Inverse folding.
């Protein structure tokens, strides 16, 4: 019986790894859709959450509660809703900080710094939960971060003029790490769809004053503009973040966070296909190093 249980657990972990990679690839399209949006980055971020809300609630209404295999509690107390709301707040802060950093620094700098989130996950896990990681995992994390740096190196711009924007980009990584750790803890009690259907409305509400203060136009004027916003909400937000949130119940958050470094690799590949942005030998090597680092981190990861 124990062997069957171990086999089932291993199968579930493999499915979770596949889910987090698919989710990361889908989220890799987010910068492209933000770039194609008719609206400014803050208004685009607001619609990303707002348009996702009815989709989450529609999915929740179509899934029988008994079909959820784990984490099937219902939030009842103020503390439950507060914890779920904090996840929504962290995600909104991440998106707002990242979009703002794009305006204040180069896209390459912003992308690189936003992907420092795994470092904050490791530090946060050690400081708050006393979670230990292996040397093999740290080597994998280091390799993956070096790969992301190589990917972005050709476009990096170090300047005093970019300092504040770089700092905000680093802040985005901090909030994304907080979001990942928060969701991992919540998934022990609540299903993915339960977390999302309550957290994402909080994200949308948090983006309202930010979008208004930015001065961005709040509504697109063409059907194409609406189509890009719906694609951003349905793809990266609902399905991408949904798959990642589901996987966080079955994988160590430290490994899951490293796996998400596949996002800049995906974004670079899609930019090459859609915008003819050059992918040279340096970018190809960086992408391969990221993948190698993720595999090494997997070797050094274990469930608590």
């Amino acid at each position: 019986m124990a062997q069957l249980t171990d086999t089932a657990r291993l199968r579930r972990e493999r499915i979770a790894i596949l889910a987090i990679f698919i989710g990361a690839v889908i989220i890799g399209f987010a910068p492209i859709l933000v770039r194609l949006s008719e609206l400014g980055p803050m208004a685009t971020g607001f619609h990303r959450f707002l348009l996702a809300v009815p989709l989450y609630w529609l999915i929740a209404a179509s899934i029988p509660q008994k079909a959820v295999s784990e984490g099937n509690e219902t939030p009842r107390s103020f503390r439950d809703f507060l914890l779920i709301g904090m996840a929504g707040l962290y995600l909104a802060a991440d998106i707002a900080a990242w979009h703002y950093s794009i305006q204040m620094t180069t896209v390459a700098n912003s992308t690189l710094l936003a992907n420092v989130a795994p470092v904050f996950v490791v530090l946060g896990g050690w400081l708050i939960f006393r979670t230990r990681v292996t040397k093999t995992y740290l080597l994998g994390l280091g390799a993956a971060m070096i790969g992301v740096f190589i990917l972005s190196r050709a476009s990096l711009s170090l300047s005093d003029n970019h300092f504040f924007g770089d700092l905000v980009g680093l802040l985005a990584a901090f909030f994304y790490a907080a979001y990942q750790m928060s969701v991992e803890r919540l998934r022990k009690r609540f299903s993915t769809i339960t977390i999302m259907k309550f957290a994402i409305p909080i994200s949308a509400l948090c983006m309202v004053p930010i979008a208004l203060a930015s001065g961005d136009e709040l509504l697109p004027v063409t059907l194409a503009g609406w189509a890009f916003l719906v694609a951003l909400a349905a793809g990266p937000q609902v399905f991408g973040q949904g798959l990642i949130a589901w996987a966080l119940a079955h994988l160590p958050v430290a490994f899951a966070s490293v796996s998400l470094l596949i996002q800049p690799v995906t974004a670079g590949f899609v930019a090459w296909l859609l915008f003819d942005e050059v992918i040279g030998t340096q970018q190809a090597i960086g992408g391969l190093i990221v993948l190698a680092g993720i595999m090494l981190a997997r070797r050094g990861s274990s469930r608590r």
Residues 17-63+70-299 form one domain. The radius of gyration is 19 Å. DSSP finds 14 helices and no strands in the chain.
